[in-house]
Every structure is written in C-alpha cells, then in structure tokens.
Amino acid sequence: MERTAGVALWRQIAERLRTDIRNGTWKEGGKLPTEQVLSARFGVNRHTIRRAISELSAQGLLSSRQGRGTFVENAPSPLTYPIGPRTRFSEIISRQSREPGGRLIGSGREAAQPWLVEKLRLSLGQEAVHRLEVLHVADGIAVSLSTNWFPAHRFPDLVSRYAETGSITKALAAHGVADYIRKKTEISARLAEPEESRWLQLAEGAPVLVTDLVNVDEAGTPVQVSRTRFAADRIQLTVEN
Questions:
Q1: Whole-model pTM over 0.70
Q2: What range(s) does the HTH gntR-type domain occupy (predicted)?
C-alpha cells in the first residue's frame, strides 16, 4: 500500500478488492477472506478493512451476512466504450443500463500552447482557449477524467453553458454547433499520476487508458481537443470502423 500517495488507505484497499472482483478472483456469490486475513494482506487494522468493505457494500458489490461473512453481491464487467465518429459519453453509458453523470471539477481561460494552436487551427489573435476539467461517472463510480480545450473566440460562454447542462454537446449546440464528429483519436496506456488516482479513486500506480482526440464540426473545423484518462479496469475501449 502507498501510505504517502494522497489516497486514503481504505480507498486503495477498496480499489484493490474491486479489481479482484472484476478479474474473477472472487466470483459473484463467493465469500471474501475474513477481516483478519485481509488486514494481514494489506498491513492495516481491521477498522480500515471495514471502511473499504462498507464502501463496496454501498456500491452494491458486497454484502455482509450476520454470522456468515462478506459475499460478492454483484460482479460487474467493465463498461464497453466504443470509439467512433460520434462518441457521446452519456449515450454510451445509458445504452448499457448504467446512469451517466458528469462533474465540472475545474475550468479556466488560458493562452493555447503551440500544439493546441495547431490542433484547433487557431488564427493570430485567437489563441485563447477555454479549458474544462470533467470527471465522468457511471452509477456513481468514477470511470474517466478528461481535460478539454475549446476556441474561446468561437465559444465565449462555453464554461457557463456546460455548468448549466452538464453536457458538452449541449454547450456546443448553444453556440450553433448542431453536431460534431471525431476526426482523430490516439490511444495509449500508462500508470496514473497522483492527481488522477485521487479523482478516479485508484490505488497509486494503477493503470489508465488515455485517449487524445480532435472533434470537428460539420464543416470540418476543429471545435474541441480532449485528453481523457480512463480507469483501465472499469472501461474496455473498442474502435468502430
């Protein structure tokens, strides 16, 4: 366990147990080891183990049965997340009978770095961008963290529109962009950084899948650049032709 990672020990343990459940270490209906065994495994006291189990129980993954122990109640498979011309988080999650949600955790107006100027095709004098930091959840569980950039001159009220609606699609529509499509997606994998681990409730060093994308409007003009970090054990990315 990482005791200096900035992530509470009980959260790290809950994430390890959640990963074990998803990987089939303990199948649905199976019994978890005792608190004493788990305490020894993670090197923590039993109170910390109880806090982790309580969190997973609140999420419907575990249930404690008096005098019998703790059992796996529900072992969900990773969400399938297709990458195609029209990739919309809410639609994708809703189609899998999960409840989508988005939370604005940061925003700002800033000067675009050279790589952003190129990707968004910004002209001289129009190099300012809006940045949105968004945490996406499914059934209340964090699945991705995204940083999004938009041309500020074209979308002056984008931050407030997103704050009102919780939807990038609706925020763009309020500025006259009726539809947009994915022009390019780059996919990579790495270990989560401390801040990412905190927001995604991951153990220190857990893997994340990273997508870097450019979305364009119907005329082919870039409207959004985004970098999204997905919790690797909660999402399965698929590429649609």
A1: yes
A2: 7-75
